[in-house]
Task: structure prediction
Amino acid sequence: MPVAKSNFLHYVAATIFVGLIIELTAYLAIQFILFPREPAFFFRSPSVSAPEFDRYVTVRDSLLGWPAKKTDMNGAEVIESRPIPAYSTTKNECVSLYGDSFTYGDEVEHAEAWSNVLSSRLNCRVGNYGIGGYGTDQAYLRFDKNVHDSAKVVILGIFPENVLRNVNRYRYLLDARTVFSLKPRFVLENDRLKLVEMPAWNREEFVLATQNLDKVFEHETFLPDSEYGPVSLSFPYTWKAVKLLLSERARSAMLGHTSWEVFYRDDHPTQALRITSEIADLFMKTGRSRGKTSLVLIYPTARSFKQFKETGTVITRPLIENLERRRIPYLDLHEGFGARVEKQEFCDLLTQPATCAGHFNAKGNVMVSDIVYEYLVKSNVLEARSIGVSAS
Result:
């Protein structure tokens, strides 16, 4: 008996020791390898100071989230375009753009943004209402609010990652950076889009909400430790590492794919593809009701362009098929870029070519403008006199 008891104690001690080694290894792997590489897949409760929150309250838009509302001298809300140096007068736009930072043209000067380059080509003002970080839902709502938009052609830019934002209500859960990033989203109810507005919390309510996300955020796809959400940075780290490996979204990113590819499946539980398609349809119908011609513009990413050049297919093909079924005009930039550059040259069109990341640089913006210009001329959606060319 004493020998058996001694063996048992040795076994228990060895098991505990091995467990501690595994836990320590998991902790080190997460803290020093995985977290620095993919911080968006880990959740830390955000720090909310009173001054920061007070500033946020003054700049938030109660419908869109951001940017702050602007009003004219009569108190009426004004939705402003990005400055267009080629046509500085803010009236009589021929084309208007809505979307995220790729539509806005982040990381380049106003004169280099593709909206300004296109204005010079068309000989008329192209209004740029793109906003960094926007989902397709916010882009549509911004268009819907902008009743003074006089353009006859309206373009909805969709960056492939938007499919994630369209099923998200708190952007911090996607990027782990933007603490004050509440947003609206659409859900499907009885096969129709229903708007879930963003909450209007005071600071105490906001802090409480960020500590109890699962209790206050209905219709949030990316709750911490959920199937698609980030993993909490807490003990036991071994279990957190296992959960990370089981996460389809995180696993795809770790393997060099994009975290949003699976959301383009028709049968995905979040219905992200269907919701994105419905928003595009709503954009077209709203435009038509205002006498406008609508176009959906699909941007390439480094990975989606590489796949297109290698296989001839694009990850966003399910979205394109949905647009075709709904007879929504679209322009897929993969084809235009593919006719102009090889896959290894795509990185030279980005602001961070060494890592093939960032937004389009000045050269990339010119290419977007060229492709859109050619489409507008060939489709004859603008009068020939407006674009300074023959429409033949």
